[in-house]
Structures are given as C-alpha cells and as structure tokens.
Write a structure and sequence with these properties.
about 170 residues, alpha/beta, 6-stranded mixed beta sheet, 4-stranded mixed beta sheet, about 30% strand, globular
Length: about 170
C-alpha cells in the first residue's frame, strides 16, 4: 500500500493563538475545514492553547485526494491538529440537532484511523485524542461514556464529544 501523508503542508495552517476556532463551511461543502482566530460565530470547535505553543491544522476531508491516491473516496474526519509535542488530535465537525450525529462522527473517526493504519502507521501511532464536535450540542453527554471507553480500549485513543479542545 502507498503511504499517504495526512500532514501534507499544501493546506497546512499554523497558529500560536491562545484561542482559535475550527470551521467547515456549509455554503462551500467541497472546501476543506480551516482554522481562524476571527468571527467566533463560525467556529464549530474552539481550541484553547493556553501555553500559546505552535499548533498546526491539516484538513483531511476535502484536503487529501484519496480518490487519486487509492482509487476510492472513503469516509474520513475533517482534519487533524498537530501539537508542538508531535501528538495528533483527529477532529470531526458536525452541525446537527437530530440523533445519530455522534455515531456518524465516530464512524468517520474510525475510518480515518483505519486509513492511517493502512497508509501511514507512523502518523497513526502519534494520534492521542479524537473529537467529535457538534456546534449544536457543545457539551459531552454522560450516556456516551461507555462507548467512548470502549473506543479508547480498542484504539488506544481518547474519544471526546465536545466542542472545546484544550491543548498544552
């Protein structure tokens, strides 16, 4: 299998801002997700970077051309944050009120993990956290704790269902 660089610098964005957002335009669904420090009303996830270390964001969905690389376009998460300590955080963004958003987001995270395991095990080994962020449901739900615990045991990654991402 061919290696895929999930951390391609083509669309990389970096910041050391204390607080920034991750956005995904509903008006331009083929555009990749991006980070910004302005217009907090468009943020689906908020990243708190208390130490103001350098954080990079790499869009995966609409950022990596999987069809060209592997001949298909599998489900995947919006993007990945790379921290100054080399840890990676997978991020899936949702803006839904109804049921099923967390399950759908978790499936996209799992698909991304499997793609990384197949096409770039070295980058997969650096993933420590995964977030399914829903701007319409910003806080974690206790009823999902067993599902998130099972996920952590199976994938050795902490899964969270909240819009606030704290990095250090």
């Amino acid at each position: 299998m061919a290696d895929i660089d999930f951390l391609s610098t083509d669309l990389q964005q970096t910041t050391n801002a204390r607080r920034f957002g991750i956005c995904d335009s509903q008006l331009a669904p083929t555009d990749p997700a991006y980070i910004t420090t302005t217009d907090g009303t468009t943020w689906i996830a908020t990243v708190i970077n208390g130490q103001q270390t350098l954080v990079s964001f790499y869009p995966i969905d609409n950022g990596v051309d999987f069809f060209q690389l592997i001949g298909s376009d599998p489900s995947k998460c919006e993007g990945v944050l790379e921290l100054s300590n080399d840890d990676l955080i997978l991020v899936e963004l949702k803006e839904r009120i109804g049921d099923g958003w967390f399950s759908d987001g978790k499936k996209q995270i799992i698909s991304t993990i499997e793609l990384m395991e197949t096409h770039n095990p070295a980058q997969r080994a650096r993933v420590r956290y995964a977030y399914v962020c829903n701007s319409r449901r910003p806080k974690s739900k206790v009823s999902r704790s067993s599902s998130m615990q099972e996920f952590a045991i199976k994938h050795s990654i902490v899964l969270k269902d909240q819009t606030l991402i704290t990095v250090s």
